[in-house]
Amino acid sequence: MVLVILLAVIIMLVCGVALAPRDGAGHRPLISAYNVTLALFAIYAVLPAGLILANDYKYVWASAYGGEERFTSTLVIISLGLFFYLLSFHTVWHGRRNVINEASSAARPRDVSIAVLLAFIAVGLLLKLYLVYSTGGIDATIARLSGAVQSSTRVEDLTSAQLGIRTLSGIADAGAVYLLIQALRDKKHVALSTLVFTAVFILSFMTMGKRLSLIIPALAVLLAIHSYWRPITTRFAPFAILGALALGMTTLLTRILVPASQSGTVVNFDKIPYAEGSIFRFYFYSLEFSSVEMMTVTQVSRENITAMFGGAWETLVQTNITPILFTIPRAIWPGKPTEIYDVSYAVSSTLDGTKLAPNDVGYASTYIGTSYIFAGIVGVVLASALLGWISARVDMAFTRRLTSPVSIIFYALMITITFHAFRQGTVGWTFIVSIIQQYGLVLGVLAITLFGHDRPHRDTSEPQLPEILQSDLKAKRKNV
């Protein structure tokens, strides 16, 4: 039965990719809200399910919740979610595609001088370097990549002011992304722009320690390549998933091994039970791919999770509305909460047997697990339909408008929001990760546009000969 359900999910995914919408040029672009969501189903549903199946239905992180019966039930809910997502997206896409495309107008291409972009990059880098210097230097910065190493070396967390500087330093990210996209468009200085882009985002990753900060720039660059160089279509889907897994593994190991090496700690994979001495088992059986297990937890312990917040309604408010209100300054709202809670924290607290607390690690159950907590199977169906509607609207609004760096970056931002909505399942946390933590980049892009100027109009019509030459040409034709 398990194999039948898993095969049905895989078939739906393959058919979904094969029926991916086409853009104005007739291509099926790989980078879209629709295809990224399908990739997330593959990475956070199909892959973990296959790993559990290979592990004889045993769960690694939620061992008390494993077993064939519960696993089968979780797969059924996943299949329902995927089905209604596909149904919703294609209904909206085919029903309103023409109206949206006809009403949309492409953004006029604008140039920003390299000097302006380099100025944004320089200011942002200075802020990043100041942050490193003022918070203990390179050693402390590296130690913060790993919670365990930070705790063992007693490195202090960043203060709210320092977090603000780190966020503001995102203007360097904005300048680097804009610089590379503009270089790809003009096919000039691509190698140098790529070098600057890579250096900026390595430093951003090292100072922030969050791999999620790399999503927007990575998507933006891929969209630029698709728009200006060569189409990246769905036939590259298998390579894209392998690339995403390789990048995820590299960045995760960087966060673990680099701080450990610096502190003199030896990471022995033989002593990690689920790794069994293998670095690949360590990665694929890590929390990164525990989403299916956490979906099962939300089904079995649904009432216990909502009770941590004070009930279902309180859970809905605290995880979807309160985090957005958290952006209000304390000077305006003196009674503003000091902590933000999410469903993932309640899931981890359930497994740890502790009270609800903003733990360092939350166990994400994706939107499927989160929506099940709120309204059971009905919640999963409604959330899947809503996600399909959002994906269709995002793709319809941007697919035929990728003519400028700004439109490319904001399409990448909207896809990223869709990504976090799938992975987290709550409006509040999606807003925090997608917008608040990216304030520097978003505000930087908006500020850069103020320095833009219209590109010189190029007359692509057939060149006209001078009048005297036209007369001479006509006379010669008559003689012929």
- Lateral arrangement of strands in the main beta sheet: 1-2
Strand content: under 5%
Q: Work out the helicity level.
A: 55-70%
Distance between the termini: 83 Å
Shape: globular
* Largest sheet composition: 2 strands, antiparallel
Uncertain stretches? 99-107, 457-480
Oligomer: single chain
Mean pLDDT: 86
Structural class: mainly alpha
CA-atom Rg in angstroms: 25 Å
Q: List SSEs in N-to-C order.
A: HHHEHHHHHHHHHHHHHHHHHHEH
Tally of helical runs: 22
For the secondary structure, the number of strands is 2
What does it look like?
The protein is mainly alpha-helical. It has a domain at 2-105 and 290-400. It has helices at residues 2-18, 33-54, 68-103, 114-134, 137-143, 147-152, 160-168, 170-186, 190-208, 215-228, 237-263, 279-284, 291-300, 302-309, 312-320, 322-325, 343-352, 366-398, 405-424, 427-434, 439-449, 467-479; strands at residues 110-111, 453-454. Mean pLDDT is 86; it is low at 99-107 and 457-480.
The gist of it:
The chain has helices spanning 2-18, 33-54, 68-103, 114-134, 137-143, 147-152, 160-168, 170-186, 190-208, 215-228, 237-263, 279-284, 291-300, 302-309, 312-320, 322-325, 343-352, 366-398, 405-424, 427-434, 439-449, 467-479, and strands spanning 110-111, 453-454.
Main features:
single chain; 480 residues; mainly alpha; two-stranded antiparallel ribbon; 22 helices; 68% helix; 1% strand; globular
Task: Furnish the topology, listing elements before pairings.
Elements: H1 2-18, H2 33-54, H3 68-103, E1 110-111, H4 114-134, H5 137-143, H6 147-152, H7 160-168, H8 170-186, H9 190-208, H10 215-228, H11 237-263, H12 279-284, H13 291-300, H14 302-309, H15 312-320, H16 322-325, H17 343-352, H18 366-398, H19 405-424, H20 427-434, H21 439-449, E2 453-454, H22 467-479
Helix pairs in contact: 1-2, 1-3, 2-3, 2-18, 2-19, 3-13, 3-18, 4-5, 4-7, 4-8, 4-9, 8-9, 8-10, 8-19, 8-21, 10-19, 13-18, 14-15, 14-17, 18-19, 19-20
